[in-house]
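Letters spell out the chain; the tokens describe the backbone. To illustrate:

===
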Amino acid sequence: MTVRGTRFDETPSLLLCYRQLQPLCLLMSPSLPLLVAQLSDLHLFSTPEQTLLGLQTMASFSAIVEALVQLPQQPDVILLTGDLAQDESPAAYEQIVQQLRPLNIPTYWLPGNHDHLPSMASILNQAPIYSDKAFSMGGWQFLLLDSTVSQQVHGAFSAKYLAELDQYLQSTTQPTLIALHHPPVAIDSDWLDNLGLHNSDDFFAVVERYPHVKLTIFGHIHQQVEQQRQGIAYLSTPSTCVQFAPNQKTFSLDQSQPGFRLLQLYPDGTFESEVQRVRINEQIDLAAQGY
């Protein structure tokens, strides 16, 4: 489907984590869109041989990276939207560095409920992988929000975090993309909706005050979703490994292939988006009742 669009508490302030980058293609031609690749829910382990529900997640991730390399135009930036590791091991994050460093594409990340933030911060912090949670590129503002709650699967934002988000959005009028791990919108799957962003109404109350917020992207749900609410697009991407079946009351896996989302962001605040799938040969355990 193509879409055309017209925790802060203990973490560093967005206002203190700012980076401004300008890709070469936009220096040459301001009319060209910025190409963004969103990858999510890698669920890597300490060793490549380990599996999730029968799937070697490292092999699947490698196939996704190879698909990025084969694109006719290389992305200007990569966004990793959480659950990068399954076992919280430093070795899992080291494998991400090994896979993505050769691409030399600026890459930014945020944590998911399966991640270990201290390990991420210590390992995923050398160019071209950055730990900044706010940056500007191609005329767009990017905000990467931490929606995780300690020892919980669901997400939430504190009042203090949302107040700082509100303050930041007041400071710019550039088209803005917000990324987080947990879906703020319902997706008509009862078990996943219970594990989404629990105070989404508080989040909506902030972002819907600012017309320059154009889209919000997220992961966590291992499937493709596109919704619109009050002029803001809400988009999820498939996992780079196993997929969850849509519209289910309880845990259910899907035979869809892994994938990633591409976003073309234009300087005028419009955008286009599509999901690309990558065929892999491994078979997942469709009878599994959870993980």
Observations:
- The first helix runs from residue 24 to 28.
- Residues 36-277 form a domain with the Purple Acid Phosphatase; chain A, domain 2 fold (CATH 3.60.21.10).
